[in-house]
Amino acid sequence: MTIATDWNMLLVKGLPFLTLLGMGLLLLVIEVLWWGKDKTIMLILSLLAVAASFYFAWDQWIQNIPWSQQLLVFDRLSYIFDLIFLFCLLITLLISRDHIKREHIERGEYYALLLLATVGMMMMAHAGDLMVLFLGIEVMTIGAYILAGIKKRHSKSNEAALKYFILGGIAAGLMVFGIAFFYGATGSTQLSILNQTFAEVDSSQSVLIFLAVALILVGLCFKIAAVPFHFWSPDVYEGAPTTVTAFMATAIKAAGFVALFRVLFIVISLTHIPWVPLLSTLSIATMTVGNLVALRQTNIKRMLAYSSIAHAGYALVGLAAAAKDNQLSEMALGAIVFYMMAYAVITLGAFAIVVAMGHRGDEAEEISDFAGLGQRHPLLAAAMTVFMIALTGIPPTIGFIGKFYLFASAIEVGLYTLVVIGVLNSVVSAYYYLGVVMTMYFKEGAVYRWPPLAYLLTTSIFLTLLGTLYWGVFPKDLFLMAQESVRQVIF
Amino acid sequence: MDTLVLGISLETLAWLIPGLPLLGALCNGCATLMARRSGQVAPKPLITFLGVGTPFLSFMVTTFLFFIIRSTHHSIDTAPLFTWMAVDDFIVPFSLYVDQLSIVMTLVVTGVGSLIHLYSVGYMAHDKAYDRYFTYLNLFLFSMLILVLGNNLPMMFIGWEGVGLCSYLLIGFWFQDPEKAYAGKKAFVVNRIGDFGFLLAMFLLYTTLTQQGVDMRGGSLNFATLEAQRQLLAPVATTACLLLFVGACGKSAQIPLYIWLPDAMAGPTPVSALIHAATMVTAGVYMIARLNFLYLLSPDAMSVVATVGAVTAFFAATIGLAQNDIKKILAYSTISQLGYMFLGVGVGAFSAGIFHLVTHAFFKACLFLGAGSVIHGLHEEQDIWKMGGLRHKMPVTFLTFLLAVAAIVGIIPFAGFFSKDEILFQTFMRGHRVLWAIGFATAGITAFYMCRLFALTFLGKSRIDPHKEAPIHESPLSMTLPLMILGLLSLIGGWIGIPEVFKGHNYFHHWLQPVLGAGTLINESAHMHGTELILAVASFLWVFHVGLIALILYSQKLDWIKRCVKKMDWVYNILRDKYYVDEIYDFILIRPIHWLSQQILWRFGDEQIIDGLMVNGSAKTINLAGRLLSLMQTGWTQHYALFLAAGALGLVAYFVL
Amino acid sequence: MNNPYLAIFCLFLFALLLGVGFVIISHFIGQKRPSTAKMMPYECGIDPLGAPRAEFSVKFFLVAMIFIVFDVEVAFLFPWAVLFKGFMKAGLGGFVFAEMMIFMGILLMGLIYVYGKKALKWE
What we know:
The structure holds three protein chains of three kinds.
Chain A: H1 7-13, H2 15-33, H3 40-63, E1 67-69, E2 72-74, H4 76-102, H5 108-125, H6 130-148, H7 155-186, H8 191-200, H9 207-224, H10 232-239, H11 242-267, H12 275-294, H13 300-322, H14 330-357, H15 373-376, H16 378-392, H17 398-412, H18 416-442, H19 455-473, H20 476-485
Helix pairs in contact in A: 2-3, 2-5, 3-4, 4-5, 4-11, 4-14, 4-19, 4-20, 5-6, 5-11, 6-7, 6-11, 7-9, 7-10, 8-11, 9-11, 10-11, 10-13, 11-13, 11-14, 12-13, 12-18, 13-14, 13-17, 13-18, 14-16, 14-17, 14-19, 14-20, 16-18, 16-19, 17-19
Chain B: E1 4-5, E2 8-9, H1 10-37, H2 44-72, E3 76-77, E4 83-87, E5 90-93, E6 97-98, H3 100-123, H4 130-149, H5 153-171, H6 178-211, H7 223-228, H8 230-233, H9 237-251, H10 260-263, H11 269-278, H12 283-290, H13 292-295, H14 299-321, H15 326-346, H16 350-377, H17 395-409, H18 415-429, H19 433-458, H20 466-469, H21 477-492, H22 507-516, H23 526-556, H24 558-567, H25 569-576, H26 581-631, H27 637-656
Antiparallel strand pairs in B: 1-2, 3-6, 4-5
Helix pairs in contact in B: 1-2, 1-4, 2-3, 2-4, 3-4, 3-11, 3-16, 3-21, 4-5, 5-6, 5-11, 6-9, 9-12, 9-14, 11-16, 12-16, 14-15, 14-19, 15-16, 15-18, 15-19, 16-17, 16-18, 16-21, 16-22, 17-19, 17-21, 18-19, 18-23, 19-23
Chain C: H1 6-29, H2 36-39, H3 58-74, H4 77-89, H5 93-116
């Protein structure tokens, strides 16, 4: 085995996650060496790292020089997901400060783990080898386990972390099992080699490969919380600190999808697997269960958890459309990438408002806590209304555009039934999303003077609101970006 | 056409005509709303100034434009103020078209309108909603002017709907009285039926033009476009014209949609004068004259129009014979006169129809305002059997009313004589002998019931309730001044169209010649003069005698009349009850529809199927499914792991098998 | 029937049957004469005192976990050391050395963190 790697190239290309990695480690050291009690420096450093990383990733996206170094690949698809993760991280950091202060979890580890988990996600996006993919997943999830349980004295948080850990462990085990089968069947875990093998050898008879694909899919479906691998997510989302939930609901979901992309690019050529029925079934089950159960939730975080399940289902509609003809179609993939961005922007906004609702000792996580918000804080209520409308998929918001592209791509390939079910699901979802709006405006609530919102929180709400509305009206540039990102994918 | 007048272009002036009343409506509306918020009434002088001033200004601008058009012989087609709709090749510019026809209409609308606004100042002086009244009235004027001046069908339709709305608002002006509110609703609903036809006609015209691939960038339904492409429209002309005529029937109260107009008298009397006599109800006639090029393509549609007009004229006149409410009589008279106009345009004598429209606006407004003056003087008394002998107490009203009655009856040289005879002559000359006979008979009936009304109100002995008698007085100047002007116009208004046989110049018809083209009059050649003269004299003698008899009978021989009525009471009852048309409609249309909507569509369709089964049913099903599914969320990690394993097994099985 | 794995399968099956079979057979044919002494737990020992879940110091686990983490990571040094000469010959000595230093540096940061968190402090 020769070491023909261009290390300088790797360094430059890998700067987005190297920056975060370095800063994550540095934060851990600062945590033990820093003498002051104020952790603001941590936040500032994290934001700096995010900014730098964002710049590097953006720069690479613009340059658009696809390059593969067997273990890691660098193409526009990976960089666009880097950007999505960084956006999620940015908003999470912005809404974190006040929340973690009043929850007494303001520690260096909090920031460090967020950064390191993001590094794991980026590894997933850049994975050129199933082992790297798995490593990325583990780095991301271990960070998420700890973050979910970071409220040490809080039983729900502990419960969330433990459940997440046990179930995540099972899923990870199954996935490694699948990777092992791949290795057993083909002698490699490298995606490019797998691709060649599938092209040359007729592997339709190999039970091992089917087993491998099935088990890896289980692991990835667990990450995106697709039914029936979704049971962890409501409990974990509810127990974890709200900011962490926001991060998990958006960034981890996007990471799961990019991992799914990476695997599907290879295994989609296995013509003996009925991809469209499989993905359609998953999609229908996911969005239907997510929406139906969300109807009955009274806790806003649980409700958003089920809603995130449902949205994964919508995105799977796109994947089913993309899988037609045993090659991933660009239009549908672009629609999914766009949908991930749309979903991230809206959901982060909604969570920012949930954070803004809370006070010391009262996190206001019940939907009934929103009663009378229309009078108490009209602007906040208006923003929440926009996010709820966007999640339902009503124009003029990015949520509508996202769903529109997804369903359009499915119609393009003739999956009418799937689209009809998707639209019906959107109708059902309107009930609980607009239920929040109704609660805010038409229910009497406690009247008290609203304390001024923190600047960072206001900024994040403003940013997400702007994104939701601006890209809802002028989606062209963002959509072109998403389309460009899936044009030249390498292994 | 960019002639500048005092630095103001003609286009701007054209825009000012509808713009000024709109300004008045907006200002008055704001003032009303602001006043209502603080629980007060807007200051009356301000409302009066705006409400009456803007129509007058508008009238002056119109007069000015009239003289310009007279000297230049050009029409003014303004550039679009904005493009109202632009969908693919369906383009509707918002622009005005001022030509010989529309300027005449505009003169009538703003002129008579201004007078009636002025009259309203006195009539409504003690009303609590004085401000709201003027808001509506200004808004009406604006809508009517858009209807008249719009350069395309959709704009005409805005005006069409706008006047319908204002009509509804003003009929139900005293909405505290349920009956009046109901009358407003009735007018609105009946008008909607007509509007439906109008809309369908527009759709039909547009689709026809699109299918032919006509370039319609200037405006898809502009009158100019339609006229230029009229050959392409020939195949659909009959359908389109009939559909449009459905609209006209609704707006202009023709059979079978006339039933709303008598009820519309529930509104304040000036409103009846302005909207339900002089202007709005003539919109249908104007529309047909405007689209004369289209109607000329379809002789069938024309004869339908003429027949409906003639029959309506006769039918409404007979009902008028047996009514006792002063305003109801005038309402039926209006329907009847509108029938004449439709007869005129239906036989192809468009200018005669418009001529009658103009003179009718004068004398009918005068009649209504006179009636208003009487009602006002008698403190809301409308039954003519409780009047009588008012000539001494209200001399001005009496005199002006007399002039107007002479005009409507058709006495030489009053306005109505020239216009009505024009129509009858044209009908006769174009070979519609039966229709002419109906029209001729109707003229006699008209003379009879108008003189009956006049005699019972002003002549004879007073039958007024003695308690009410004392305070009767003549109306204030703001009311009598319009009366006097309109009375004068009833006398001289017809002189603009004196036919050549009476040594006139038929000025009015020459004026409309550029717009209505050859479709104005059959050329009055010398050998026709004999016929025309005979017809005119015959008709004059006929109405004069009938009128005289009615006058004498109803002022001197009331006992004899009563005995007559008693003998023929079945005829009388049928007439008094308006041929039971309302009841028939109620029985064959309203009740079945009501039953259908109540029992089938609402009770069964809406409540059971849609609400019960579809809305609540699906919601319940979904809720139940949600409940069942959430049962799986036990909170036990073991269960979750089990589900996960089962799912994995399922997936593996799916792949391997 | 020519599958080479068939023999192995048969072996498994035989072992399973044998194990389960003995237990079942003894259950049926063995005599049972329970007595007080026999029913007591730990016939050969003393009676248990207190709950079986004893308290223990969590510090053991903490230290053990930290040990495992660092031990496993440091185990990378062995293959590195074995292959180092080969790399030197290929002219990559400096680079590979730097790489290991970075790896050690990361471990060092972990150690500093562990130390700073007082995870290694007994008492």
